[in-house]
Amino acid sequence: MNIINKEDPLSQDVANSFAPVSGKNPYVLILGTMPGQVSLKSAQYYAHPRNAFWPILISVIQQSEPDSRTVQKLPYPDRIQLACEHGYALWDVLAQCHRPGSLDSDIQQQSAIANPINEWLAQHPSVVRICFNGKTADALFNRHVRKEFNETMADRSIEFFTLPSTSPAMASLSLSEKHATWLKALRL
């Protein structure tokens, strides 16, 4: 595994992802690219207050309309617990990369190191669906993980969904439009 040299002057913008979040028998793995700066500083998945991820996921779980204000009042550990209890696992395609700022488009591709997703999937045979939080997560998976996935997971029946990014940078869709697309993918 290639690890970015912390002494390298470019390494000041090194981003490292979090450990996966999962209950005992997850059935949907939701993969982002790499946590943004607000998330990294908070040590929380999707911590930016304008990120639509938590309002969408909680609304799917509670079978309600997405509401950012209500979700912000729900403590992060409770959000994680709800996700895990309902069979959702969270992780990122990348373990590490050089990225100034938070935008996926700023990831320096030559620095990208993937998480061991195939190993994790082998330990979680209950996963039947992988949802990519945005096109970049899908592209990075295809670039760094797919070949080994096709070889090691050939006997698994896993569906793939590429969903609109929940990032506030993806402003071409409204919260309700994103919710409608995510709802179809997150419900089995």
Describe this structure in words.
This protein is α/β, with parallel strands linked by helices. It has one domain: Uracil-DNA glycosylase-like domain (Uracil-DNA Glycosylase, subunit E, 3-Layer(aba) Sandwich). 36% of the residues lie in helices and 16% in strands. It has helices at 37-42, 53-62, 68-73, 76-85, 117-123, 135-144, 146-152, 175-186, and strands at 14-16, 28-32, 88-92, 94-98, 113-114, 129-133, 159-163. The protein has a 4-stranded parallel sheet. α2 packs across α8 (175-186). It is globular and about 40 Å long. The protein starts with 13 loop residues before the first strand and ends with a helix. The model is unreliable at 1-11 (pLDDT under 50).
Radius of gyration: 16 Å
Let me know the number of strands.
7
Count the domains. 1
- Helix fraction bin: 25-40%
The CATH architecture can be named as 3-Layer(aba) Sandwich
> Unreliable stretches, pLDDT < 50, 5 or more residues?
1-11
Provide the residue-averaged pLDDT: 89
* Lateral strand order in the biggest sheet: 3-2-6-7
User: Structural class of the helix and strand makeup?
Assistant: alpha/beta
Name of the CATH first level: Alpha Beta
Question: What is the element layout, followed by pairings?
Answer:
Blueprint: E1 14-16, E2 28-32, H1 37-42, H2 53-62, H3 68-73, H4 76-85, E3 88-92, E4 94-98, E5 113-114, H5 117-123, E6 129-133, H6 135-144, H7 146-152, E7 159-163, H8 175-186
Parallel strand pairs: 2-3, 2-6, 6-7
Antiparallel strand pairs: 1-4, 4-5
Helix pairs in contact: 2-8
